[in-house]
Amino acid sequence: MTSTGLPESLIATLPGTAYTDPGIFAREQEHIFEAMWFCAVRAADLAGPGAFRTVQVGRESILLTRARDQSVRAFFNVCRHRGAKLCTQESGEVKRAFQCPYHAWTYDLTGKLVAAPNLTKMPDVSRTEYGLASVATREWLGYVWVCLAENPPPFDEVVQDVVARLGDVDSIERYDVESLEVGRRIVYDVKANWKLIVENFMECYHCATIHPELTEVLPEFADGYAAQYYVGHGAEFGEDVQGFTVDGSEGLDRIPGVTEDQDRRYYAITVRPQVFINLVPDHVIFHRMYPVAPDRTVVECDWLYLKHVVDSGKDVSRSVELFDRVNRQDFDACERCQPAMNSRLYAKGGVLVPSEHHIGEFHTFVQERLNAGRRE
Protein backbone atom coordinates (compact mmCIF):
# COMPACT_ATOMS: atom_id res chain seq x y z
CA MET A 1 0.00 0.00 0.00
CA THR A 2 1.14 3.57 -0.69
CA SER A 3 1.00 6.54 1.68
CA THR A 4 -2.44 7.32 0.21
CA GLY A 5 -3.73 3.94 1.33
CA LEU A 6 -4.02 2.74 -2.28
CA PRO A 7 -2.38 -0.37 -3.77
CA GLU A 8 0.84 0.30 -5.69
CA SER A 9 -0.95 -0.12 -9.02
CA LEU A 10 -3.44 2.68 -8.34
CA ILE A 11 -3.06 6.43 -7.93
CA ALA A 12 -5.76 8.91 -6.96
CA THR A 13 -7.58 11.23 -9.34
CA LEU A 14 -8.62 14.76 -8.55
CA PRO A 15 -11.59 15.07 -6.15
CA GLY A 16 -15.08 15.52 -7.54
CA THR A 17 -15.19 19.22 -6.69
CA ALA A 18 -12.38 19.84 -9.20
CA TYR A 19 -14.96 19.14 -11.93
CA THR A 20 -17.95 20.99 -10.45
CA ASP A 21 -16.87 23.90 -8.24
CA PRO A 22 -17.46 27.29 -9.95
CA GLY A 23 -14.68 28.82 -7.86
CA ILE A 24 -12.13 26.26 -9.05
CA PHE A 25 -13.31 26.72 -12.63
CA ALA A 26 -12.91 30.52 -12.35
CA ARG A 27 -9.34 30.06 -11.12
CA GLU A 28 -8.63 27.69 -14.02
CA GLN A 29 -9.96 30.28 -16.43
CA GLU A 30 -7.70 32.94 -14.93
CA HIS A 31 -4.51 31.00 -14.32
CA ILE A 32 -4.61 28.52 -17.21
CA PHE A 33 -6.65 29.71 -20.19
CA GLU A 34 -6.07 33.44 -19.69
CA ALA A 35 -2.40 33.02 -18.75
CA MET A 36 -1.13 30.51 -21.34
CA TRP A 37 -1.07 30.52 -25.15
CA PHE A 38 -4.57 29.56 -26.32
CA CYS A 39 -5.33 28.24 -29.81
CA ALA A 40 -8.17 30.47 -30.98
CA VAL A 41 -8.98 30.13 -34.71
CA ARG A 42 -7.80 28.65 -37.98
CA ALA A 43 -5.86 31.45 -39.71
CA ALA A 44 -7.75 30.77 -42.96
CA ASP A 45 -11.00 31.71 -41.17
CA LEU A 46 -9.65 35.28 -41.33
CA ALA A 47 -9.51 35.18 -45.12
CA GLY A 48 -8.94 38.85 -45.85
CA PRO A 49 -8.90 42.35 -44.33
CA GLY A 50 -11.99 42.88 -42.20
CA ALA A 51 -12.81 39.19 -41.73
CA PHE A 52 -13.31 38.49 -38.05
CA ARG A 53 -14.19 35.87 -35.46
CA THR A 54 -15.03 36.24 -31.79
CA VAL A 55 -13.99 33.46 -29.40
CA GLN A 56 -14.26 32.87 -25.68
CA VAL A 57 -10.84 32.68 -24.03
CA GLY A 58 -11.21 32.05 -20.34
CA ARG A 59 -13.73 34.60 -19.09
CA GLU A 60 -13.07 37.02 -21.94
CA SER A 61 -14.58 37.51 -25.39
CA ILE A 62 -11.74 38.06 -27.86
CA LEU A 63 -12.11 39.63 -31.30
CA LEU A 64 -9.72 38.41 -33.99
CA THR A 65 -9.42 40.07 -37.38
CA ARG A 66 -7.06 40.57 -40.30
CA ALA A 67 -5.76 44.09 -40.87
CA ARG A 68 -5.18 45.71 -44.25
CA ASP A 69 -1.48 44.75 -44.12
CA GLN A 70 -2.63 41.07 -43.84
CA SER A 71 -1.44 40.79 -40.23
CA VAL A 72 -3.71 39.10 -37.70
CA ARG A 73 -4.83 41.28 -34.80
CA ALA A 74 -6.62 40.30 -31.60
CA PHE A 75 -8.43 42.56 -29.15
CA PHE A 76 -10.63 42.34 -26.10
CA ASN A 77 -14.14 42.48 -27.55
CA VAL A 78 -15.00 45.44 -25.33
CA CYS A 79 -15.73 49.03 -26.33
CA ARG A 80 -13.46 51.45 -24.45
CA HIS A 81 -16.33 53.88 -23.85
CA ARG A 82 -18.89 52.11 -21.66
CA GLY A 83 -17.86 48.49 -21.97
CA ALA A 84 -20.44 47.25 -24.48
CA LYS A 85 -19.59 44.11 -26.43
CA LEU A 86 -18.23 45.47 -29.69
CA CYS A 87 -18.98 42.51 -31.97
CA THR A 88 -22.01 40.42 -31.10
CA GLN A 89 -21.65 38.04 -34.04
CA GLU A 90 -19.45 34.94 -33.88
CA SER A 91 -17.98 35.66 -37.31
CA GLY A 92 -18.38 38.01 -40.25
CA GLU A 93 -16.67 40.73 -42.21
CA VAL A 94 -16.47 44.51 -41.98
CA LYS A 95 -15.25 46.84 -44.68
CA ARG A 96 -12.97 49.18 -42.78
CA ALA A 97 -13.88 49.38 -39.11
CA PHE A 98 -15.76 47.98 -36.12
CA GLN A 99 -18.53 50.18 -34.73
CA CYS A 100 -19.97 49.77 -31.25
CA PRO A 101 -23.75 49.29 -31.50
CA TYR A 102 -24.30 51.36 -28.32
CA HIS A 103 -22.77 54.81 -28.94
CA ALA A 104 -21.07 54.26 -32.32
CA TRP A 105 -17.49 54.51 -31.18
CA THR A 106 -15.61 53.23 -34.22
CA TYR A 107 -12.26 51.43 -34.42
CA ASP A 108 -10.16 50.57 -37.47
CA LEU A 109 -8.68 47.12 -38.11
CA THR A 110 -5.59 47.98 -36.05
CA GLY A 111 -7.77 48.86 -33.05
CA LYS A 112 -7.29 52.63 -33.28
CA LEU A 113 -10.26 54.83 -32.35
CA VAL A 114 -11.15 56.60 -35.60
CA ALA A 115 -14.58 58.09 -34.97
CA ALA A 116 -17.21 58.75 -32.32
CA PRO A 117 -20.10 61.19 -31.98
CA ASN A 118 -18.73 64.63 -31.00
CA LEU A 119 -15.15 63.28 -30.93
CA THR A 120 -13.81 66.52 -32.43
CA LYS A 121 -15.22 68.36 -29.40
CA MET A 122 -13.19 66.11 -27.09
CA PRO A 123 -9.59 66.88 -28.14
CA ASP A 124 -8.18 65.32 -24.97
CA VAL A 125 -9.50 61.84 -25.91
CA SER A 126 -6.48 60.09 -27.44
CA ARG A 127 -7.41 57.95 -30.44
CA THR A 128 -4.57 55.59 -29.59
CA GLU A 129 -4.96 55.44 -25.81
CA TYR A 130 -8.68 54.83 -26.17
CA GLY A 131 -8.25 52.30 -28.95
CA LEU A 132 -9.12 48.66 -28.46
CA ALA A 133 -7.00 46.73 -25.94
CA SER A 134 -4.80 44.37 -27.94
CA VAL A 135 -3.90 40.76 -27.21
CA ALA A 136 -0.65 38.98 -28.11
CA THR A 137 -0.88 36.71 -31.17
CA ARG A 138 1.24 34.08 -32.87
CA GLU A 139 0.58 31.85 -35.88
CA TRP A 140 1.66 28.21 -35.92
CA LEU A 141 0.38 25.11 -37.71
CA GLY A 142 -2.07 27.32 -39.60
CA TYR A 143 -3.81 28.47 -36.40
CA VAL A 144 -3.83 31.76 -34.52
CA TRP A 145 -2.79 31.45 -30.88
CA VAL A 146 -3.47 34.25 -28.42
CA CYS A 147 -2.28 35.03 -24.92
CA LEU A 148 -4.13 37.37 -22.59
CA ALA A 149 -1.31 37.64 -20.07
CA GLU A 150 0.24 41.07 -19.58
CA ASN A 151 3.64 39.40 -20.05
CA PRO A 152 3.03 36.34 -22.26
CA PRO A 153 5.28 33.32 -21.70
CA PRO A 154 7.62 32.42 -24.58
CA PHE A 155 5.68 30.80 -27.42
CA ASP A 156 8.46 28.20 -27.61
CA GLU A 157 6.81 26.60 -24.57
CA VAL A 158 3.92 25.58 -26.85
CA VAL A 159 6.27 24.15 -29.45
CA GLN A 160 8.25 22.31 -26.81
CA ASP A 161 5.01 20.83 -25.47
CA VAL A 162 4.57 19.17 -28.87
CA VAL A 163 8.23 18.14 -29.11
CA ALA A 164 8.01 16.45 -25.70
CA ARG A 165 5.33 14.13 -27.08
CA LEU A 166 6.63 13.52 -30.61
CA GLY A 167 10.36 13.58 -29.99
CA ASP A 168 11.16 16.46 -32.37
CA VAL A 169 9.34 19.35 -34.02
CA ASP A 170 10.09 17.98 -37.50
CA SER A 171 7.70 15.10 -36.84
CA ILE A 172 4.69 17.41 -36.91
CA GLU A 173 6.05 19.86 -39.46
CA ARG A 174 6.26 17.06 -42.05
CA TYR A 175 2.46 17.11 -42.15
CA ASP A 176 2.59 20.75 -43.40
CA VAL A 177 -0.51 21.48 -41.31
CA GLU A 178 -0.51 25.20 -42.15
CA SER A 179 -0.96 24.45 -45.88
CA LEU A 180 -3.83 22.00 -45.43
CA GLU A 181 -7.44 23.10 -45.83
CA VAL A 182 -10.54 22.43 -43.77
CA GLY A 183 -12.54 19.67 -45.42
CA ARG A 184 -15.06 19.45 -42.60
CA ARG A 185 -15.65 21.24 -39.31
CA ILE A 186 -17.88 19.92 -36.54
CA VAL A 187 -18.65 21.79 -33.31
CA TYR A 188 -19.59 19.67 -30.29
CA ASP A 189 -21.30 21.12 -27.23
CA VAL A 190 -20.24 18.75 -24.46
CA LYS A 191 -21.97 18.77 -21.10
CA ALA A 192 -18.82 17.90 -19.18
CA ASN A 193 -15.86 19.56 -17.48
CA TRP A 194 -12.89 20.23 -19.74
CA LYS A 195 -10.56 18.08 -17.62
CA LEU A 196 -12.73 14.99 -18.14
CA ILE A 197 -12.31 15.51 -21.89
CA VAL A 198 -8.52 15.88 -21.61
CA GLU A 199 -8.27 12.80 -19.39
CA ASN A 200 -10.33 10.78 -21.85
CA PHE A 201 -8.17 11.84 -24.77
CA MET A 202 -4.98 10.89 -22.92
CA GLU A 203 -5.79 7.22 -22.36
CA CYS A 204 -6.97 4.24 -24.33
CA TYR A 205 -7.98 1.96 -21.48
CA HIS A 206 -11.53 2.64 -22.65
CA CYS A 207 -10.92 2.04 -26.37
CA ALA A 208 -11.91 -1.63 -26.51
CA THR A 209 -15.10 -0.82 -24.62
CA ILE A 210 -16.50 2.13 -26.57
CA HIS A 211 -14.52 2.47 -29.83
CA PRO A 212 -15.19 -0.64 -31.97
CA GLU A 213 -14.54 1.20 -35.25
CA LEU A 214 -11.24 2.65 -34.01
CA THR A 215 -9.92 -0.66 -32.71
CA GLU A 216 -10.70 -2.28 -36.07
CA VAL A 217 -8.39 0.25 -37.75
CA LEU A 218 -5.82 0.36 -34.92
CA PRO A 219 -5.77 -3.16 -33.41
CA GLU A 220 -3.30 -2.29 -30.64
CA PHE A 221 -5.92 0.04 -29.19
CA ALA A 222 -7.92 -3.03 -28.18
CA ASP A 223 -5.30 -3.50 -25.45
CA GLY A 224 -5.47 -0.54 -23.12
CA TYR A 225 -2.04 -1.34 -21.73
CA ALA A 226 -0.37 -1.29 -25.15
CA ALA A 227 -1.88 1.96 -26.39
CA GLN A 228 0.47 4.47 -24.79
CA TYR A 229 0.13 6.57 -27.92
CA TYR A 230 -0.05 9.84 -26.01
CA VAL A 231 3.77 9.99 -26.15
CA GLY A 232 3.57 9.96 -29.92
CA HIS A 233 5.06 6.56 -30.80
CA GLY A 234 2.43 6.09 -33.49
CA ALA A 235 -0.12 3.29 -33.57
CA GLU A 236 0.13 1.10 -36.66
CA PHE A 237 -2.84 0.44 -38.93
CA GLY A 238 -4.20 -3.10 -39.01
CA GLU A 239 -2.71 -5.45 -41.60
CA ASP A 240 -5.78 -5.39 -43.86
CA VAL A 241 -6.56 -1.69 -43.27
CA GLN A 242 -5.94 0.55 -46.26
CA GLY A 243 -6.71 3.94 -44.72
CA PHE A 244 -7.86 5.80 -41.62
CA THR A 245 -11.53 5.49 -42.55
CA VAL A 246 -14.65 4.17 -40.83
CA ASP A 247 -14.51 0.93 -42.82
CA GLY A 248 -10.74 0.69 -43.26
CA SER A 249 -11.04 1.47 -46.97
CA GLU A 250 -8.48 3.48 -48.90
CA GLY A 251 -7.94 7.05 -47.76
CA LEU A 252 -7.18 10.16 -49.79
CA ASP A 253 -3.94 11.54 -51.22
CA ARG A 254 -1.05 11.18 -48.81
CA ILE A 255 0.54 14.35 -47.47
CA PRO A 256 3.86 14.57 -49.38
CA GLY A 257 6.07 15.30 -46.37
CA VAL A 258 4.96 12.23 -44.42
CA THR A 259 7.90 9.84 -44.12
CA GLU A 260 7.86 6.07 -44.60
CA ASP A 261 8.22 5.68 -40.84
CA GLN A 262 5.07 7.78 -40.36
CA ASP A 263 3.07 6.07 -43.11
CA ARG A 264 0.25 3.77 -41.97
CA ARG A 265 0.52 5.17 -38.45
CA TYR A 266 -1.69 7.28 -36.23
CA TYR A 267 -0.26 9.83 -33.80
CA ALA A 268 -2.23 11.67 -31.14
CA ILE A 269 -0.90 14.42 -28.89
CA THR A 270 -2.25 17.00 -26.46
CA VAL A 271 -1.01 20.58 -26.54
CA ARG A 272 -1.70 22.33 -23.29
CA PRO A 273 -4.02 23.69 -22.30
CA GLN A 274 -6.77 22.95 -24.84
CA VAL A 275 -5.64 21.37 -28.12
CA PHE A 276 -5.69 17.76 -29.36
CA ILE A 277 -3.96 16.87 -32.64
CA ASN A 278 -4.38 13.59 -34.52
CA LEU A 279 -1.99 12.85 -37.39
CA VAL A 280 -2.54 10.23 -40.11
CA PRO A 281 -0.91 9.99 -43.57
CA ASP A 282 -3.66 11.72 -45.56
CA HIS A 283 -5.20 14.17 -43.07
CA VAL A 284 -4.91 15.91 -39.73
CA ILE A 285 -7.67 16.18 -37.13
CA PHE A 286 -7.32 19.30 -34.99
CA HIS A 287 -9.48 19.85 -31.88
CA ARG A 288 -9.77 23.08 -29.91
CA MET A 289 -11.60 23.20 -26.59
CA TYR A 290 -13.41 26.27 -25.28
CA PRO A 291 -14.32 25.66 -21.60
CA VAL A 292 -17.37 27.83 -20.88
CA ALA A 293 -18.69 26.45 -17.56
CA PRO A 294 -17.69 23.85 -14.95
CA ASP A 295 -19.98 21.36 -16.68
CA ARG A 296 -19.86 22.57 -20.30
CA THR A 297 -17.12 22.59 -22.93
CA VAL A 298 -17.43 23.52 -26.60
CA VAL A 299 -15.06 21.53 -28.85
CA GLU A 300 -14.40 22.69 -32.41
CA CYS A 301 -12.88 19.99 -34.60
CA ASP A 302 -11.31 20.49 -38.05
CA TRP A 303 -10.54 17.72 -40.54
CA LEU A 304 -7.65 19.03 -42.66
CA TYR A 305 -6.69 17.71 -46.10
CA LEU A 306 -4.45 18.67 -48.99
CA LYS A 307 -5.76 21.73 -50.84
CA HIS A 308 -6.42 19.92 -54.11
CA VAL A 309 -8.40 17.24 -52.26
CA VAL A 310 -10.75 19.88 -50.81
CA ASP A 311 -10.90 21.94 -54.01
CA SER A 312 -11.78 18.88 -56.10
CA GLY A 313 -14.75 18.05 -53.92
CA LYS A 314 -13.48 14.53 -53.19
CA ASP A 315 -15.57 12.57 -50.72
CA VAL A 316 -14.00 12.89 -47.26
CA SER A 317 -16.98 11.43 -45.41
CA ARG A 318 -15.44 8.04 -44.57
CA SER A 319 -12.48 9.59 -42.75
CA VAL A 320 -14.68 12.22 -41.11
CA GLU A 321 -17.18 9.57 -39.98
CA LEU A 322 -14.52 7.51 -38.24
CA PHE A 323 -13.34 10.19 -35.86
CA ASP A 324 -16.73 11.86 -35.59
CA ARG A 325 -17.95 8.55 -34.15
CA VAL A 326 -14.91 8.40 -31.85
CA ASN A 327 -15.58 11.95 -30.66
CA ARG A 328 -19.25 11.29 -29.97
CA GLN A 329 -18.42 8.07 -28.12
CA ASP A 330 -15.84 9.91 -26.03
CA PHE A 331 -18.07 12.87 -25.27
CA ASP A 332 -20.97 10.58 -24.32
CA ALA A 333 -18.63 8.89 -21.85
CA CYS A 334 -17.56 12.24 -20.39
CA GLU A 335 -21.19 13.30 -20.04
CA ARG A 336 -21.90 10.05 -18.16
CA CYS A 337 -19.12 10.90 -15.72
CA GLN A 338 -20.02 14.54 -15.11
CA PRO A 339 -23.14 14.00 -12.93
CA ALA A 340 -21.23 11.62 -10.65
CA MET A 341 -18.63 14.29 -9.92
CA ASN A 342 -21.24 15.67 -7.48
CA SER A 343 -21.74 12.31 -5.80
CA ARG A 344 -20.64 11.90 -2.17
CA LEU A 345 -18.97 8.70 -3.37
CA TYR A 346 -16.62 10.76 -5.54
CA ALA A 347 -15.82 13.40 -2.92
CA LYS A 348 -12.24 12.11 -2.75
CA GLY A 349 -12.14 11.17 -6.42
CA GLY A 350 -11.48 7.86 -8.12
CA VAL A 351 -8.37 5.96 -9.16
CA LEU A 352 -6.07 5.59 -12.15
CA VAL A 353 -4.87 2.15 -13.22
CA PRO A 354 -1.28 1.69 -14.54
CA SER A 355 -2.11 2.45 -18.19
CA GLU A 356 -3.64 5.74 -16.99
CA HIS A 357 -0.90 6.82 -14.59
CA HIS A 358 0.34 9.49 -17.01
CA ILE A 359 -2.95 11.35 -16.41
CA GLY A 360 -1.57 12.06 -12.94
CA GLU A 361 1.03 14.31 -14.55
CA PHE A 362 -1.80 16.31 -16.15
CA HIS A 363 -3.45 16.65 -12.73
CA THR A 364 -0.13 17.90 -11.32
CA PHE A 365 0.05 20.49 -14.10
CA VAL A 366 -3.43 21.79 -13.24
CA GLN A 367 -2.72 21.93 -9.52
CA GLU A 368 0.63 23.67 -10.03
CA ARG A 369 -0.98 26.36 -12.20
CA LEU A 370 -3.65 27.01 -9.56
CA ASN A 371 -1.16 26.97 -6.69
CA ALA A 372 1.05 29.45 -8.56
CA GLY A 373 -2.00 31.67 -8.97
CA ARG A 374 -2.53 31.67 -5.19
CA ARG A 375 1.04 32.89 -4.65
CA GLU A 376 0.76 35.78 -7.11
Report on the architecture of this protein.
With 376 residues, this protein is an alpha+beta fold. The chain is 24% helix and 26% strand. The chain has a 6-stranded antiparallel β-sheet, sandwiched between helices. Strands 5-4-3-6 form a 4-stranded antiparallel β-sheet, with no helix packed on it. A 3-stranded antiparallel β-sheet has the order 2-11-10, with no helix packed on it. Helix 1 packs across helix 9 (359-375) and helix 4 (194-202) crosses helix 8 (317-337). The model is unreliable at 226-231 (pLDDT under 50).
Strand proportion: 25-35%
If you compute it from the alpha carbons, what radius of gyration comes out, rounded to the nearest whole angstrom?
22 Å
| Domain tally | 2
Following the backbone from N to C, one meets helices and strands in this order, namely EHEEEEEEEEEEHHEHHHEEEEEHHEH
Helix amount: 10-25%
Uncertain stretches: 226-231
Main sheet specs? 6 strands, antiparallel
What is the structure about, briefly put?
By secondary structure, the chain is an alpha+beta fold.
Give a quick set of tags describing it.
Naphthalene 1,2-dioxygenase Alpha Subunit, Chain A, domain 1, Rieske Iron-sulfur Protein, six-stranded antiparallel beta sheet, 9 helices, 376 residues, alpha+beta, 2 domains, 24% helix, globular, four-stranded antiparallel beta sheet
